[in-house]
Structures are given as structure tokens and as C-alpha cells.
Design goal:
The structure is a single chain. By secondary structure, this protein is mainly α. It is 70% helix and 7% strand.
Length: 197
């Protein structure tokens, strides 16, 4: 098993154990989702041999996500911290949360590019890049569904309301778009993965 996956599984399991012991059911849900996502990426890696730097990028996102929800800042957590006051309430742009969302979907777009570009022989770059960005944004929508479930299942969360969801979706899309210039740097290695078994 590749080292980035060992790190991710240990991190997810550690988060789950800590959440269980601390009675933090919001993060217990996130730990379970994290382990499922890492498992899906790991399964995809067997076929697409994801770029190692991108896999470490996934791990960086996991660390940023965990710190965002657990690191106390004033009366709240790091996710609520306004890094640069570009737009005030009720939008609170630019928060740590929005930066982490943009970074996450930058990484998701890089992963999806490696999967989608396997069809590059029959489709042009523009269409493949558009499909990749839309797929990454769709994954971001799934993340918002999980956050909504957390607000339904757990009484007190730091997820935020409608404005937060809308801003998160915009940050997800921007992050995916920012990945486009890096797509050609990721050489598809699916053939090498298939050859290695």
C-alpha cells in the first residue's frame, strides 16, 4: 500500500476514535465519510495510479479540514475565522472555510482529471476539462448534502446556513477551475497501473 494511503487511513481512523471518545458525533460522521472517500480513492488508484503529489494534496486537505473543525478560535473554531475581510456579514468572505473548500475541490479536480483524461483519445481538452470541473463541482454538492445531514443529525454544528452553503458551492467551483492549468502536468498512468496489476 502506498504511503499516502497509509497516512490517510491512520488519520481517518484516529479522527474517528478521538470523536467517539470525545462524544463529538459531528466529527464521527466526518471521520466515517473520510474513510469511505479514502477507500474510494484507494480503489481508483489501483486502476489510474494517481499522481503521488495529488495524493499528498488529499492528505493536506484532510489535515486542514480536521484543524478547521477542531482548532478553537475565540468562541468558535478555525473554520469560522475570517482571514481577509473582503465582504462582511452575512457572507463573511474570505473565511478559512472558503479557502479550504476551494483547495479541496482543486485537489478533487486534479484527481478527476486523471480519471476522465483516460478518454482523451476520443475527446478534446476543452470538453474533458469542462467535464472535470463540473464533476468536481458535483462532488462539492455532495459535500454540502453531508453538511446538511450533519445539521439534521447533530444539534450544534459549525456548518452555517444558506449563505454558507452558497458560498461553499462557489468556492468549490472556483477551486475546481483553478486546477485546469495543472491538468496537462498530470500524465495519465492508467496503462502503467494496469500493467503492474
Amino acid at each position: 500500500m502506498r504511503i499516502p494511503f497509509i497516512f490517510a487511513y491512520v488519520l481517518g481512523a484516529g479522527l474517528g476514535l478521538w470523536s467517539l471518545l470525545a462524544g463529538n458525533y459531528e466529527f464521527l460522521l466526518y471521520a466515517a465519510v473520510t474513510l469511505v472517500l479514502v477507500g474510494l480513492i484507494h480503489a481508483g488508484d489501483r486502476r489510474f495510479a494517481f499522481n503521488t503529489s495529488v495524493l499528498w494534496g488529499v492528505n493536506l486537505w484532510l489535515v486542514l479540514h480536521i484543524l478547521g473543525g477542531l482548532w478553537p478560535v475565540g468562541d468558535s473554531v478555525l473554520y469560522s475565522l475570517v482571514l481577509i475581510d473582503l465582504v462582511g456579514e452575512p457572507y463573511s468572505i474570505l473565511k478559512y472555510d472558503q479557502v479550504v473548500h476551494a483547495y479541496c475541490y482543486f485537489i478533487v479536480a486534479l484527481l478527476l482529471w486523471q480519471v476522465i483524461s483516460a478518454a482523451r483519445q476520443t475527446l478534446g481538452f476543452g470538453l474533458l476539462a469542462s467535464l472535470t470541473v463540473l464533476a468536481a463541482a458535483g462532488v462539492g454538492g455532495g459535500n454540502e448534502v453531508i453538511e446538511f445531514a450533519a445539521t439534521v443529525l447533530v444539534p450544534d454544528t459549525n456548518v452555517g446556513g444558506y449563505e454558507n452553503t452558497a458560498i461553499d458551492l462557489v468556492a468549490n467551483f472556483v477551486g475546481a477551475c483553478l486546477a485546469v492549468p495543472f491538468f496537462n502536468r498530470l500524465t495519465p498512468r492508467a496503462g502503467a497501473a494496469a500493467a503492474s496489476g
